[in-house]
Amino acid sequence: MLGSLQGLAEAVANNEFTGEIYRFVKIDPNEPWFDMVTRAEATPDQVQQINIPPHLLAHMQTIPFVFYPREHELWFVAKDRKTTLAIQVAERFFQRLLEQTAATHQMPDVAVTALPDREALDEVLSVPGLHKLELHFKRPNPDGAAPVREPE
Fold it and tell me: Is 38 helix (H, G, I), strand (E, B) or coil?
């Protein structure tokens, strides 16, 4: 879930806004529960003792990000001491978010592309037994954004 946004009013002038992605686990209370003491499924009496209000969601994590509108670059913390967000998950999250926003406001389609490290390509190309490699390209978003920078 997109949790927070700061600096939207000044985003164009400052070329920056920040925010957080919220991650959490939605527990289905109707699914079986596990009793670690007995190493068996919890009994109906045990499950009946559980009282988690439906508006509380477990295992909340916050992932900070910063977006530079002119460059069309979004940077986020993929891993810290206790939180991890895979690049592909972040790419799908922002793709869906932007698709919904574009559809709501009658805007053109937006393509989200995660830029891998240069070392990632070398790693793929050095896989033993690699005989075929398929490349899929996305055209840049047609709004005159700055050219893509080389990763540092």
Answer: coil
At position 144, the amino acid (one-letter code) is: G
Three-state DSSP at 81 gives coil
Residue 45 has pLDDT above 90, yes or no: yes
Quote the Cα angle for 38-41-42, to 5°. 80
Identify residue 125 by its one-letter amino acid code.
L
Nearest to 67 by CA among 14, 118, 28: 14
Structure tokens at 56: 């509380």
Segment 2-9 long-range contacts (CB within 8 Å, at least 24 positions apart): 2/97, 3/62
Rounded Cα–Cα distance for residues 73 and 76 (Å): 10
Q: CA-CA distance, 107 to 20, in Å (whole number)?
A: 24
Q: In this structure, is the dihedral angle defined by the CA atoms of residues 85, 86, 91 and 92, taken in order, positive or negative? A: negative
The 10s digit of each residue's pLDDT in 105-141 is 888 888 888 877 778 778 888 889 888 888 777 766 6
Strands annotated E in the chain: 2-6, 17-25, 34-35, 40-41, 58-68, 73-76
